[in-house]
TrEMBL record:
Pfam families: GGDEF_2, HTH_30. Belongs to the CdaR family. Signal peptide: none annotated. Residues 299-354 form the PucR C-terminal helix-turn-helix domain. This is DNA-binding PucR family transcriptional regulator. Gene3D superfamilies: PucR C-terminal helix-turn-helix domain. GO terms for molecular function: DNA binding. Residues 127-249 form the CdaR GGDEF-like domain. Keywords: DNA-binding. InterPro entries: CdaR-like_regulators, CdaR_GGDEF, PucR_C-HTH_dom, PucR_C-HTH_sf. It comes from the Bacteria.
Length: 368
């Protein structure tokens, strides 16, 4: 807001209105109220606060009061009282109209600012703008894109938007702890996104913590994926895409989470880079499992559980909620049907790779 007094031209014909009201006792007319709303809107657009505007009008009211015709020439105390009531009603209506116009301009400015911010975020995360221009715009929102940045993305059981209580909670915690310098918090496609400079990696760790556990009464994120650090404006896009890729893998592979680091999941894009080769591996190695009673699903689940348990049969059986004897039977069936022995290190690696590829490709639910 501007410093100093607000110019008198924002009073419009306020003196004439009061003079007429004092002489007739009438209410303010609709065109007069509309004019006052417009004056309030113009004052807001010029950078003047509502307090200053009201102060200007109240000061003008005090200055004029004693010289108004209805007050100065009233024949009796009762007439003065009636005039005072009419004037106070007019002042009240005028202040309300000014406030409505001022508030309307403020809301419009907020919406415009939100639109500009949203456009910037879209350009930043999708790389749809000239990088030099994007870097200039980024400074307005507290980011210096010449530095390296990383992006974290949180996904909950329900979509996040800018007014979601979890978003507000995380925002308050981050600002209270780190301020607003070189960090950007926003929502995109129902997810909560945090962009932070690589030198402020602690911010992303805190973001993951708050998103996972925003506090009592709030439902935390299922997963928080953190992309790797990359330099420049294009680096933000890369890190964001890595985080989204990690979330997609978490969904498809049912990864435990809740915090996932894209750098720890680099093997999966490698596996999927040649989809045809991966499909051939799954079909060749695991295809025979479909002839088992109950289908390939239970045996594929057994391979996954054994790998996760480090091939400790008791732990794998506990995770599968079956007996160790049943687990041993399943492993023997896998060996018999596929020809690959889970007890042999090299053959176990082939089975594990094929099992991981099956999960990435959605097999056996999805045909290869």
């Amino acid at each position: 807001m501007k410093r100093g007094g607000i110019p008198g031209h924002f009073l419009g014909d306020y003196a004439g209105m009061l003079a007429d009201v004092s002489g007739t006792g009438r209410l303010l007319r609709r065109p007069e109220l509309d004019a006052l709303r417009e004056l309030g809107e113009r004052a807001a657009e010029a950078g003047y606060g509502l307090r200053e505007l009201i102060g200007l009008y109240l000061g003008e009211t005090r200055r004029l009061w004693g010289s108004l015709p209805g007050v100065a020439r009233a024949p009796s105390a009762a007439a003065v009282a009636r005039t005072d009531d009419a004037l106070l009603g007019a002042v009240d209506a005028a202040i309300s109209a000014l406030g409505e116009g001022h508030e309307r301009a403020q809301h419009l400015a907020v919406r415009q600012e939100e639109a500009v911010r949203r456009e910037f975020i879209d350009d930043l995360l999708y790389g749809r703008s000239d990088l030099g221009r994007l870097a200039e715009r980024a400074e307005r929102f507290g980011l210096r894109l010449a530095r390296s940045h990383a992006v974290a993305v949180a996904e909950g059981d329900e979509p996040y938007d800018d007014v979601h209580p979890v978003v507000r909670r995380v925002e308050r915690e981050l600002i209270a702890r780190f301020g607003e310098h070189d960090v950007l918090l926003t929502t995109k496609d129902g997810r909560l996104v945090c962009v932070a400079a690589s030198s402020e990696r602690v911010i992303l760790d805190a973001f993951a913590k708050y998103a996972e556990w925003p506090g009592t009464g709030y439902s935390g994120a299922r997963w928080v994926a953190i992309g790797r650090e990359h330099p420049g404006a294009g680096g933000v896009v890369l890190s964001y895409e890595e985080a989204l890729g990690a979330l997609e893998l978490a969904e498809r592979l049912e990864l435990p989470g809740p915090v996932l680091h894209a750098g720890d999941l680099l093997v999966f894009p490698v596996l999927l880079r040649d989809r045809a080769a991966m499909s051939d591996l799954v079909r060749t190695v695991l295809g025979p499992l479909t002839t088992s009673r109950g289908g390939a699903g239970p045996l594929l689940e057994t391979l996954t559980a054994c790998a996760a348990a480090g091939y400790v049969n008791a732990e794998a059986a506990r995770r599968l909620k079956i007996s160790v004897r049943t687990l041993s039977y399943r492993l023997e069936r896998i060996k018999t049907l596929t020809g690959y022995d889970p007890g042999d290190a090299l053959q176990r690696f082939t089975l594990e790779t094929a099992a991981m590829g099956a999960r990435l490709l959605g097999w056996p639910a999805e045909p290869l």
